[in-house]
Design brief:
Paramyosin is a major structural component of many thick filaments isolated from invertebrate muscles. The chain is mainly α. Helices cover 88% and strands 0% of the residues.
Length: 168
């Protein structure tokens, strides 16, 4: 019975050693798997940190782009306001120019009429002088009196557009 017991112990020891060897092999395999998973975790963690950094950079860029867009929108609004003011000023200037052009044309027409009247008056004065000279040469010694000479003025003294006759 002792032999059996020894054999059973030997078999148990042999089986235990085999189980221990298997468990040690399994432990080494699990340690290798753990080491591989640890490396993958480190790589994943590194990728995660890089992704987080990239997300923060993109969020910052989005914020900057939004600020720039807001500034540009404000600038566009200001430019549109200035454009409206400038358009209004141009319209007012055009209205003023049209008014001034109308006044200029009216004054030019009045000037043309006045020059025409002055020319007619000068022609009338010239005819009257010629007639007066011819009548004076027909009647010897009958010259113009002082009061008659005051009636007619020379065109150079009367000036353009003013009356050629003096009715004192």
């Amino acid at each position: 019975m002792q032999v059996r017991l020894d054999e059973a112990e030997a078999a148990a020891l042999k089986g235990g050693k085999k189980i221990i060897a298997q468990l040690e092999q399994r432990l080494r395999q699990l340690e290798q798997d753990l080491e591989g998973e640890s490396r993958r975790h480190q790589q994943t963690d590194k990728s995660y940190r890089q992704a987080e950094r990239r997300i923060k950079e993109l969020e910052f860029q989005v914020d900057e782009d939004k600020k720039n867009q807001d500034r540009m929108t404000d600038l566009v609004d200001k430019m549109q306001s200035k454009l409206k003011v400038y358009k209004r000023q141009v319209e007012e200037a055009e209205e003023l120019a049209a008014t001034n052009l109308g006044k200029y044309r009216q004054l030019q027409a009045q000037l043309d009429d006045a020059e025409e009247r002055a020319e007619l008056a000068e022609n009338s004065v010239s005819k009257l002088r010629a007639k007066n000279r011819s009548s004076a040469s027909m009647a010897p010694g009958a010259g113009l009196t002082t009061s008659a000479s005051a009636i007619f003025r020379s065109p150079s003294r009367a000036g353009r557009g003013s009356s050629a006759m003096n009715f004192d």
